[in-house]
Amino acid sequence: MKYTYLLFLTLFLFITGCNQSESDKKNDSEKIVIGISMLSMQNEFIVNISDEMQKKAEELGAELIIVDAERSPLKQIEQIESFIAQKVDVIILNPCEFEASSPAVTKALDANIPIVNVNSATKVQPTAFVGSNDVESGRIAMKFIAEKLGGKGNIVMIQGLNGQAAQIQREQGAKEIMEQFPGLVMIAQQTAEWDRAKSMDLMQNWIQSYGSKINAVFAHNDEMGLGAVKALQDAGMKDKVIVVSIDAIADALQAVKKGDLDATVFQDARKQGAGSIETAFKIARGQQFEKELLIPFKLLTKGDVDPYLKLN
Amino acid sequence: MHYINKLRQYGILIVFSIICLIISFISPQFLTVSNWTIIITQVSINAILAFGVTFVIITGGIDLSLGSIVAVAGVSAAMLAHPDSYPLLVPVFAGLFAGLLIGAFNGFIITKSKIAPFIVTLGTMTIGRGLALILSNGRPVSNLSDSFVFIGSGKILGIPVLIIILIIMFILCSVILNKTILGRYVYAVGGNEQAARASGINVSQVKIAVYSISGLLAGLAGILLTSRITTGQPNAGAGFELDAIAAVVIGGTSTTGGKGSMTGTLIGVLLIGVINNSLDLLNVTSYYQQVVMGIIIIGAVVLDSLNHKSNS
Amino acid sequence: MHAATEQILRVNRLSKSFFGIKALDNIHFDLKKGEVHALMGENGAGKSTFMKILIGLLKADSGSISFNSEQIENLDVHSIMQKCISMIHQEILMVPELTVAQNIFLGREIGRAYLLDDQAINQKAEDLLQSMGLNIKVRTKAKHLSIAEMQLIEIAKAVSHNARVIIMDEPSSALSEKEVEILFKIIRDLKNKGVSIIYISHKMEEIYKIADRITVLRDGKFIATKNTADLDKNSLISLMVGREIEELFSANSLAQPEVVLKVQNLHKKGKFSDINFEVHAGEVLGIAGLMGAGRTEIARAIFGLDRINSGNIILKGKKLTIRSPEDAIREGIGYVSEDRKTLGFIPELSVKQNISLSSILKYSKAWFIDNKKEQTATSKIAQELKIKASGLNQKVMNLSGGNQQKVVIARVLLASPFLIILDEPTRGIDIGAKHEIYKLIRQLTKGGLAVIMISSELPEILGMSNRILVLSKGKQKTILTQKEASQEKIMQYALH
Question: I need a labelling partner for A157 at 20 to 30 A (CA). Which of B40, C457, C459, C464 fits?
Answer without folding.
Answer: B40
